[in-house]
Amino acid sequence: MKTSIYFSFVFLIAYAICVLFGYIQAALFFFSVSPLVVLHMVYKILKDPHEVQVSFDDEFYQDGKHPRVK
Fold first, then answer.
1. In total, how many domains does the chain have?
2. CA dist., res. 13 & res. 47, Å (int)
3. Model's pTM, two decimal places?
4. pLDDT, tens only, 24-63
């Protein structure tokens, strides 16, 4: 899953650089392929076998110990 996230980030940076420097053909290519990259990343994230052990009521964020204020 991490590789698809890294690839999507590099893809976004490459697209931004193409737009910044005016490479119109490359930017149009990246823009037209971007839905496939997003769909691939969503598929990889949804099919990830890692199961979260805490609920949303226990911890507000899953990246650290942030208790939810009720």
1. 1
2. 25
3. 0.68
4. 999 999 999 999 999 999 998 889 888 777 776 767 666 6
